[in-house]
Amino acid sequence: MPVPEPITGKATSMALGVVQGAATEATKDLERSVAKIIGYTVNTRKKCKNAQLAVKTLVDCKNTLLGKKERAPGFTLNEQASGWIEDVEVLQQEINNIVDRSLWNPFKRHSIGWKSAWADRRAEKLMNQYQMFFQMATDDKLFVPATPKPLELCDLPATEPNKYTGRAETLAEIISSVDDANHHLIDVFGTGGIGKTTMLADVAREVGKRTEGSNRFDRVVYVKVGRQQDIGNIGVQIAPQLGVQLANEESPGPGLINKLRLEWHRRVLLILDDVWTEIDLLKIGLGSYKDFPGVKVLIGTRRTDLRHTWSADAKIPINFLSDEDSWDLFKAKAKLREDDINKIGDNVAKAVKDECGGLPLALAIIGSALSVKRERGQWENALNYLKLSDPKYLPNVEEKLYRCIQYSYDNLKDTERQLVFQLCCLFPEGHEILVEDLTRYLIGEHETESYTCLQKTIDTESIITGLEDFCLIQRPGTFRTVKMHDVVRDVAVFIANEKKITFINCGASHHTKLPDEHFKKVERMSVMRSRINEVPDQLDCPELCMLLLRENQHIKLTRYFFKKLKKLVVLDISDSSISSLPSSVEYLSNLRTLCLNRCSNLCSVDIIKKLYNLRVLSLRDCKITSLPNRMNSLQYLRVLDLKSLRGLKVSVELLSDLRQLEELHLDTMSLSVAHLIEIAKLKHLKELELCIPDVSIFYSSQIPTGLISNWQNFFVYSSELLQVSRSYKRSLHIKGAIVISAWVKLLVAATEDLTFDECFPNWLNLATPVGGNKFQNTKVIRLIQCNSIKCLYPTNHAGDCCFTNLEEIYLTDLENLLHVSEGNASGSFQKVKRIHMKNCGKVKCVMPYGLLLNVHCGLKEITIIECKMVQTIFQFHPTDALLLQNLRTIQLCNLRELTSICQGTPPEGTFANLKELVVEGCGDSLKSLFTPHLTTLFTSLQKLIVEGNTGLEEIISDNGTPLERKATNNNNNIIAFPRVSHMSLLNLDQLQSFHKVGETITSLEWPMLSYLRIGGCSRLVNLPRAIISTPNLEEIELASIEDENWYKNLRWDGTTRQQLHCEIRTSTSGI
Predict the structure, then answer these.
(1) Where do runs of H (alpha helix) occur along 681-782?
(2) Does position 1054 have pLDDT exceeding 80, yes or no?
(3) Which residue has the higher pLDDT, 963 or 186?
(4) Residue 964 falls in which region: left (phi positive, over 0), alpha (psi -120 to 50) or beta
(5) How far apart are CA 733 and CA 84, in angstroms?
(6) Which sequence spans correspond to the domains of the chain?
């Protein structure tokens, strides 16, 4: 090998020059990088302020556009303007996320400076767009006609739709009357428990579905009026449903009436349910119906003799259920099968049904009460009770219904259930009762210390479930609240009053006085929402145990008001304007529950130090800024609720005094490490809600860990701006933490709902939490902008099982994510039902074989958005039967590198229950959606949305495998998606055909297709449709006016456009 000659002379000089030049350039690059980093890090506050001001100017411009839209009824902003508004709102949210307490975190300064500078540049770009396109634009350039949509109905009661023959006829009669041009006010009447509310809710839903035509309404407004009728309050309830903005605490009056009057000139259906007295429509802005021809008023009432400002044009009764419908409802509620009926006796079961008199509520209550009884003797006893019991007279309550409710109440298994039932009637009619309030009242009612507050909460939930099963209370749509049917409440109030130990006067529509005599034996008193403005100097009720004064804004408590209430154990003065507690509170030596929530003027509660027996103290959303420094006198305090107390200061010593505390809610004060150390020392603490805005606390190693495992329910989060769910009992949401300490790892191990936002350079350090618990309790995980994460968890080793109970995965802005998991450890991810992935930049296959092997049994929904490197979704191996039989929805949006939905050949039966497939905004790599084999698997698909896929040339590819053919009515058409009823094909510039073999375009059969939206498919010259193959087609909607010429030139399979028996219309909103 020859030896190279040394570089000498001129060559040496040239080489040194090159090296020095390169070094100089590298140094300059480094200097520029360092300068840029320093530039973003210094003056962070100034950059942040500049970005805020720029965004504020944009928001003002956005509001100007929206104001123009409000003044253009029947029109909406064009696509460009709507997109601009959406971009502004996204930027507004970004700047809100930047401007939080993380500004004090030195580790976040560079990130905040960079984001602020980016937001400032983005705001400048959006402002240029506004000035160029929208600021001076004329209305014809700015607006397009609005496409009518089904109305969004608010405040409808949670009822099951009627499904009985007789009710369908009544529903049709009411709707016909509503549509009658000569009918302006319609009375719907019937006895209590007959089903008026359910019927009116059905009317609202049916009318709300209308999207066009002369019978379409602009608004459907529903108001539950109730017995204590307050016409001013009715106006306050109507206003937001009409889009009227009310000023804070705006009271009913001429100003509100004038605002409402302006809205009644539109087509509005006003439903007033549970009306007891005449309605003066003038007081809600409605004069003569001639002045408001578009308004229809539908009134639900028990009375037939009501007179209103407008006379009723129709009176429609809600009749009792027919014998057949009664039997169907009764069997369903009693859970009767044929063998049960044979055992009980058909005649006995039907005789019990007959005693309900065709009243739906009675049938539901008595049926539910008997659902746990299967002996003939038990049913005969019930029949005798209903026949022979002496019903008490209650106005407006049917005797048969009273008997049924009384029987169900008597059959409650224990006094605790009866107590909860009676507590529910202490609230006003129609009130949604917080389960939390009931629990806290019960804690006060009981003297025993043998069980914890958490046990009492669990017991209360169990009792409520039992009452719900008996149809004595209802869940209005959320697990946190319950309510009573007004008839059931009437009976409950009667039962509670029978022994003269309960006084209830709730929801009075006029100012009342608190009773001051003849109440020596009363044990429970509720005067909630009774507009009390006068109280006696001393309330002389020596036996009183519970006093509910809440929602009396103008109540003034005298100095000695509580002096004679020494047996009082529960006191609730929430939602009042009191500024302090009277000194006589110190006489309440037995008080165990004190609720002062939302007392907006309350400044001091120092006197509570003298309530030595207090177990529950709730000060939620008051204006208190400080508590006593020491509260060591409250040795029995179990529950302390300090939620939403802005600016509250709590001393560390106060927390150390409350050694018996079991439940703590603290979400707005500035916590320190010292505070959290004291909280972690509370050995009885079982339930905790805590906001920790200073993320450095998550790093602290000073927090003791010994008792944290005792926290059975917790909700811990780091940012007030973070939108978090409260569906689970153990939730942890952290934003901006770089590292976490051992105490947080303990929480992670126990958490059900887990969120990390902008966290963790070392995810795997967290992935091996204390005790080796590999997220076994986690049910929901959300990872946002955690850029160190490359995979959710590596499962390469046998027995390396993790996320065994995980149900939902949300991954957003993880720029380095490669996989959800590596490997295929058996047992991991097996309960996953939902996967949502957005902007995860390095993922190529969403569901590789190893992950698919674990999730295929439970997965129901998968959504993948803006993942720029994703090429395929599912990876199948030919030898395994991974059927994805529970998968219902696939949504794929803006996947620019997507080439196929499946890699490999899915086995027969895969996707058998998929209902909806959406593929939008995918790039040039996606040439076709389905192979012929894949097409045969989507046997249950009902909705197919294919929009904006720039490279798509055909829906079904030609890979040499012919599609299955099926003889239908002497034709030999190809089956494609036999259950698809809704299909949308938009902006598919390269689409040439649905399917062709070679150069031959094939004819497809769409037997269930009813709606087709199509547009922006200029290269598609042939639409696969034969008269016999699409018998259910009702409508073809062209996406824009430009598509009309294209449509006229279409070629059809074996027919002409004139033979189509469906509506052809052009959208007015564009693509």
Answers:
(1) 742-750, 763-766
(2) no
(3) 186
(4) beta
(5) 31
(6) 44-145, 165-317, 412-495, 939-1071
732 pLDDT higher than 90: yes
Of the pLDDT bands very low, low, confident and very high (cuts 50, 70, 90), residue 836 is: very high
pLDDT of residue 675: 92
**Residue type present at position 974:** I
User: For the residues of 76-145, what is the DSSP string, one character each?
Assistant: EE-HHHHHHHHHHHHHHHHHHHHSSGGGG-GGGHHHHHHHHHHHHHHHHHHHHHIIIIITT--HHHHEEE
Fold entry, domain 412-495 = Arc Repressor Mutant, subunit A (1.10.10)
pLDDT at 902 over 90: yes
| DSSP symbol at 148 | P
Position 903: which residue type? Q
* Nearest alpha-carbon partner for 362 in 198, 488, 492: 488
Q: Give dist(CA 735, CA 758) in Å, integer.
A: 6
Q: What is the mean pLDDT of residues 843-851?
A: 92
pLDDT in tens, 339-353: 999 999 999 999 999
Return the pLDDT at 101.
44
| The CA-based dihedral angle spanning residues 663, 669, 672, 678, taken in that order and rounded to the nearest 10 degrees | -20
The gap from C-alpha 181 to its chain's centroid, in whole angstroms, comes to 38
Angle, CA 154 vertex, CA 71 and CA 142 arms, to 5°: 25
The whole-model pTM stands at 0.76
Distance CA 201, CA 159 (A): 7
Q: Give the range among 132-136, 241-245, 857-861 with minimum mean pLDDT.
A: 132-136
- Mean pLDDT of the region 282-288: 81
> Please, what is the Cα angle at 684 between 681 and 688, to 5 degrees?
80
Dig out the tokens for 517 from the structure.
Answer: 């005599």
Instruction: Report the alpha-carbon distance of residue 921 to residue 930 in Å, rounded.
Output: 17
DSSP string for residues in 847-909: E-HHHHHHHTTT--EEEEES-TT--EEEE--TT-----TT--EEEEES-TT--EEEES-PPTT
Tokens of 978: 């036999």
User: Amino acid letter at 416?
Assistant: E
Please give the full DSSP string across 570-588, using - where no structure is assigned.
EEE--S---SB--GGGGG-
CATH fold group of domain 165-317: Rossmann fold (3.40.50)
Closest CA to 685 of 708, 666, 662, 703: 662
Going by the DSSP 8-state scheme, the letter that residue 474 receives in this structure is B
Would you say 218 and 268 are in contact if contact means Cβ atoms under 8 Å apart? yes
Same fold: 165-317 with 412-495: no
For the chain, the first-to-last Cα distance in angstroms comes to 72
pLDDT digit string, tens, across residues 512-548:
666 666 678 899 999 998 888 778 889 989 999 999 9
DSSP 993: B
Note the pLDDT tens digit of each residue in 293-315: 889 999 999 887 777 667 788 99
Reduce the DSSP state of residue 200 to 3 states and report it. Answer: helix
Count the helices and strands in the chain (H runs, E runs).
26, 48
With tokens 């930049």, the residue in question is 841
Name the pairing type of β-strands 433-434 and 481-482: antiparallel
